[in-house]
C-alpha cells in the first residue's frame, strides 16, 4: 500500500477522525451530554469498520463507513444550528435533546480557556437521611472563546473530515472495482488459453497413430 494511494489517504483520514471523535467523546462524558456520547460511540465503531475494510479490501465496510458519515454530517449540522440558535432552535429550550433531560450543559460552556465561573451551592433534602448538594452556575465570564463556539468548531472539524472521508471512500471503492475488473480480465485470458490448449490437444489426439517397425540387422 503506497503512501500516495487512495487507500493510504483514506486510512490517514480515518486516523484523524478517530483522534477527533475520541477527544470529543471524552469531553461529552465529562459534561454528561449523553446523546452526543451515544452518537460518538457509533461513530468510533464505524470508523473502526472503515479501517478494517480499507486494510482487508472489504468494499461493503467502506460503503457502510461512507453512508454513516452522510448521517454524521447531518448530526453535526444540527449541533451547529443548536449552539448558534439558528431558526427555532435555542440552547435553553432544546438542550434536553443533548443531555437526555439531565439539565447538564456542555463542559466547554463553563470550563473554556480563561473562564471565570460564579457558582452557588444548593442543598436538596431527599429524605431525612440523604442530602444532595449541587453547584448551580450563575455566570461565566472572561472566556477567551465562548464555549458555544468551541462546540461549533468541534462539529465543523467533524464535518470537514467526514466530507473528505466520503470522497476517499468513493475513490477507494472505484479503485477496488478497477482491480477486480483487471483480475477478471486476466482470469478470462487464462481460461481462453486453457480452452485453446485443450482444443489443440484434442486435434492431436484425432491424428491416427502409425505403427513403427524397428529393423534389426543380422550380425
Automatic annotation (TrEMBL):
Belongs to the NKAIN family. The keyword Aminoacyl-tRNA synthetase does not apply. Keywords: Cell membrane, Membrane, Transmembrane, Transmembrane helix. It comes from Acanthaster planci. The chain crosses the membrane at residues 34-54, 61-86, 155-174. It is a multi-pass membrane protein. It is found in: Cell membrane. One of its GO terms (cellular component) is plasma membrane. The keyword Transferase does not apply. The lineage of its organism: Eukaryota, Metazoa, Echinodermata, Eleutherozoa, Asterozoa. One of its GO terms (biological process) is regulation of sodium ion transport. This is Sodium/potassium-transporting ATPase subunit beta-1-interacting protein. It holds the Pfam family NKAIN. It comes from the Eukaryota.
